[in-house]
Design a protein that fits this description.
It is built from 15 helices and 14 strands. With 477 residues, it is of the alpha/beta class. The protein folds into two domains: 198 residues, Hen1, N-terminal domain (c-terminal autoproteolytic domain of nucleoporin nup98, 2-Layer Sandwich); 213 residues, Vaccinia Virus protein VP39 (Rossmann fold, 3-Layer(aba) Sandwich), CATH 3.40.50.150. Its EC number is 2.1.1.386.
């Protein structure tokens, strides 16, 4: 099995050989790695400033491949264990090799050059022999929605005899992508195209799929097909994955991707994201909260500020995204915190549209730039889980004010981020918040964040919900 990854560059400050840092494999050395089914080799056919190609060759041991399968024949005849395409055509074997050999690159970590994992590269990936159970359009339908230019060339059964095309293709992908995303996509989609796996699929595969598909699979137009094939059509696993991805659809992107995070108002020259954090912290301090749940914590900016203040004795960061939680853990240096500080903070994966008992018992909860990433039809479920079972004493909700967008130089109808499902004006936000407050027994007040325009109002609007202990309002569940 063979796969090549090529990076090209025409910039002196970003040579193509940066690929070696990301893969954690030096271009000047050939390396090999022992796997249960054979040996993986990594080498570089070319490595210079303009073009760098890394090759992964998986040398499969057919005996090791079938060892431990027992006496039951594979594919209907006894020699099929030894006479088949498995040692040669890319499949789940190659996907597993990718996951083992390039594990650090897939995780998006590069300790020597920490800025590189977040830099898109001009990439060309080729898999010359790939089983494609379906026509060549299947490969295009899987990769093109991810931003790849996809060239699929069927491999003929016999060029001389004219027997037509085999079920194998030569796949070539080109595009500007993060290397970690590209490897994660290959890890998932290679066995999907083959529609087979060389190992038994258990519940752990759902976790693997959710982790590897983070950031791209939840919204993929072929998600149902990908999930079915990756999980070998086992309905109970497919249903579990569908429920997990339903939560991921509501996950906001990392805060650093939002348009206004680095936008500074002309009066203060302070980034709006900083003004928003300051306003949240000031309000939390004024309400004398000592335990805070950051619901939709993203990369953990607010968590870091809370952790700095010893008054907050219990801090919870919640997000549906594994990747965001990993980023938050790195930002907070959780592995290096003193024991006393580590005891004060917890990170938790959860979807806000489902009731979670672990969110109960906090003085305050924060939903900062979260609700606009949730479909409006699912906002009642979010309100139910936050204001019902969780029922914190104070809830802070911030969201963009669409009336102010024109003052960011945006055209009419343009929104601040492509993942926003809506952006409300002040009247709509206040009507929604007032209805929620009345339903769940809270009082609510509103304030603006950022430099306020006389007509358009502030760039960010905040609702401060305070629980009325005397209220007998029923909690919708």
């Amino acid at each position: 099995m063979f796969l090549t990854i090529t990076s090209t560059s025409d910039r002196d400050e970003a040579p193509a050989t940066d690929l070696g840092y990301l893969l954690h494999k030096h271009p000047d050395r050939a390396q090999k790695f022992g796997l249960p089914v054979g040996t993986a080799h990594v080498f570089y056919p070319r490595a210079d400033a303009t073009t760098c190609t890394a090759a992964l060759l998986l040398e499969v041991d057919p005996i090791a491949l079938v060892r431990g399968r027992g006496s039951r024949p594979v594919d209907g005849f006894s020699l099929a264990q030894y006479v088949n395409d498995r040692p040669y055509a890319a499949s789940s074997l190659l996907a597993v090799a990718l996951g083992k050999v390039f594990k650090t690159a897939i995780s998006g970590r590069c300790d020597v050059r920490p800025e590189l994992p977040g830099t898109p590269l001009n990439l060309e990936i080729e898999v010359p022999a790939l089983p494609c159970r379906g026509d060549s359009d299947l490969a295009r339908s899987l990769f093109e929605p991810l931003g790849w230019t996809c060239t699929v060339t069927p491999v003929p059964l016999d060029p001389e005899l004219g027997w037509g095309d085999s079920p194998y293709v030569d796949l070539r992908l080109t595009g500007e992508q993060l290397l970690s995303d590209a490897l994660s996509q290959l890890y998932v989609l290679l066995p999907v195209l083959d529609d087979a796996k060389h190992y038994w699929v258990t519940a752990d595969e759902v976790d693997k799929l959710v982790r590897a598909g983070e950031g791209w699979l939840a919204t993929h137009p072929e998600r149902a097909l990908i999930t079915e094939r990756y999980l070998r059509h086992q309905r109970w696993l497919v249903d579990d994955a569908a429920e997990r991805f339903a939560g991921l659809e509501d996950a906001p992107p990392p805060e650093s991707e939002l348009l206004d995070d680095e936008a500074a108002t002309s009066e203060t020259r302070v980034p709006l994201a900083t003004q928003r954090l300051d306003a949240l912290l000031e309000t939390l301090e004024a309400c004398k909260a000592r335990s805070v749940a950051d619901l939709g914590c993203g990369e953990g900016k607010l968590l870091g500020r809370l952790l700095e203040n010893p008054r907050y004795q219990r801090i919870l960061g919640v997000d549906v995204s594994h990747r965001s939680l990993r980023a938050a853990a790195r930002r907070l240096h959780l592995d290096d915190l003193p024991d006393r500080a580590a005891e004060r903070i917890e990170l938790r994966q959860s979807s806000l549209v489902y009731a979670d008992p672990g969110l109960a018992g906090f003085d305050a909860a924060v939903l900062s730039e979260v609700i606009e990433h949730v479909d409006e039809s699912r906002l009642p479920a979010l309100a139910s889980s936050v204001f019902g079972p969780a029922r914190p004493g104070v809830v802070l909700v911030t969201t963009p004010n669409v009336e102010h967008n024109q003052h960011f130089g945006m055209s009419e109808g343009q929104i601040r981020h492509t993942d926003h499902r809506f952006e409300w004006d002040r009247a709509t936000f206040q009507a929604w918040a007032s209805a929620v407050a009345g339903q769940y027994g809270y009082a609510v007040r509103f304030q603006g964040i950022g430099a306020e325009h006389p007509e358009a109002g502030p760039p960010t609007q905040m609702a401060v919900f305070t629980l009325d202990p005397s209220s007998a309002a029923e909690v919708s569940r």
